[in-house]
């Protein structure tokens, strides 16, 4: 394990970070994302655990996760599988129940979200005592790489409509690379009605409503190389429905 300056500095730090990794058919990506997480947490010296929530992936993601658990240890890799694909929103809820950290990091497992940004999230949180830190593709050095025009338009469009309708005061609403205080995330999840992709947006809109403080860190989102996105036409329709429900109820 790396023993840099960071390690010593943070030894007395009692904070613990639970990383939630929802997976559905991510067998190619999981070993690398876990390796990178272990590397960056090791270098920065923060205490952590990685919770893999696999939804019965037919490609054998869970078996890969079991091997990773043998390599890195049961205290670092925690497996909380579910029998079938039940959606991203409920995967997070399931993961939170098993998290032992006082902070929770949610991110995609397909390498679109690079673990190198996590130490920046943590430092930003400590700096301002924020309730949540949101990775943003739409500020500063943030950006999106590898998406076709269709995906870019959908993401920009969803952000734009939501900004106009709900004025949440955060630049990236649909992104899902975030750090939360655990109790804040729990209180948000309790109030969130949406499932699926709109969930991310509802979380940040509700956070603002409840007066939680939000810090932002620019991130680059790189489209997956292995496997495919689970965002289809159905998700877009349910996103719009969810947005309208939010508009009507907040
Ligand atoms: N357990 C579980 N169950 N995991 C899932 C499910 C599910 O039903 N559906 C997707 N995942 C996992 C994937 O394996 C991946 O780790 C992560 O959730 C994101 O899924 P992708 O399919 O890669 O999403 P995307 O790249 O199309 O969408 C990304 O960008 C959107 C818009 O910015 C995600 O970050 C979305 O959350 C985001 O809204
Ligand atoms: Mn993806």
TrEMBL record:
Pfam families: Glycos_transf_2
Classification via InterPro entries: DPM1-like, Glyco_trans_2-like, Nucleotide-diphossugar_trans
UniProt domain Glycosyltransferase 2-like: residue ranges: 18-187
Gene3D superfamilies registered for this protein in UniProt: Spore Coat Polysaccharide Biosynthesis Protein SpsA, Chain A (3.90.550.10)
Biological process, per Gene Ontology: dolichol-linked oligosaccharide biosynthetic process; GPI anchor biosynthetic process; muscle structure development; protein O-linked glycosylation via mannose
Keyword Cell membrane: no
Any one GO cellular component localisation term in the record: endoplasmic reticulum membrane
Class of the enzyme per the UniProt entry, highest EC level: transferase
Pathway given in the UniProt record: Protein modification; protein glycosylation
Named cofactor requirement(s): Mn(2+); Ca(2+); Mg(2+)
Reactions catalysed, as given in the entry: a di-trans,poly-cis-dolichyl phosphate + GDP-alpha-D-mannose = a di-trans,poly-cis-dolichyl beta-D-mannosyl phosphate + GDP
Chief localisation class: endoplasmic reticulum
Assigned EC number: 2.4.1.83
UniProtKB keywords: Endoplasmic reticulum, Glycosyltransferase, Magnesium, Manganese, Metal-binding, Transferase
Keyword Zinc belongs to the record: no
Subcellular location: Endoplasmic reticulum
GO molecular function per UniProt: dolichyl-phosphate beta-D-mannosyltransferase activity; metal ion binding
Membership in a protein family: Belongs to the glycosyltransferase 2 family.
Function text: Transfers mannose from GDP-mannose to dolichol monophosphate to form dolichol phosphate mannose (Dol-P-Man) which is the mannosyl donor in pathways leading to N-glycosylation, glycosyl phosphatidylinositol membrane anchoring, and O-mannosylation of proteins; catalytic subunit of the dolichol-phosphate mannose (DPM) synthase complex.
Assembly: Component of the dolichol-phosphate mannose (DPM) synthase complex.
Record's protein name: Dolichol-phosphate mannosyltransferase subunit 1
Organism, as annotated: Electrophorus electricus
């Amino acid at each position: 394990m790396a023993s840099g300056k960071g390690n010593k500095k943070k030894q007395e730090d009692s904070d613990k970070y639970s990383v939630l990794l929802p997976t559905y058919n991510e067998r190619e990506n999981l070993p690398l994302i876990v390796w990178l997480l272990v590397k960056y947490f090791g270098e920065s010296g923060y205490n952590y655990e990685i919770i893999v929530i696999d939804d019965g992936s037919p490609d054998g993601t869970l078996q890969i996760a079991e091997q990773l658990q043998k390599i890195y240890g049961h205290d670092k890799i925690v497996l909380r599988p579910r029998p079938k694909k039940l959606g991203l929103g409920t995967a997070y809820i399931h993961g939170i129940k098993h998290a032992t950290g006082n902070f929770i990091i949610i991110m995609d497992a397909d390498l679109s979200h690079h673990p190198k940004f996590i130490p920046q999230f943590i430092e930003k949180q400590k700096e301002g005592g924020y309730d949540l830190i949101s990775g943003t593709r739409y500020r500063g050095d943030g950006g999106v790489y590898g998406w076709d025009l269709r995906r870019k338009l959908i993401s920009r469009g969803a952000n734009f409509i939501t900004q106009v309708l709900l004025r949440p005061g955060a630049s990236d609403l649909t992104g899902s690379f975030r750090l939360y205080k655990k109790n804040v995330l729990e209180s948000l999840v309790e109030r969130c009605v949406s499932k699926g992709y709109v969930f991310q947006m509802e979380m940040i809109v509700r956070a603002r409503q409840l007066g939680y403080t939000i810090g932002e860190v620019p991130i680059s989102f790189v489209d997956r190389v292995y496997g495919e996105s689970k965002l289809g036409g159905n998700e877009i329709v349910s996103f719009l429905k969810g947005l309208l429900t939010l508009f009507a109820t907040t």
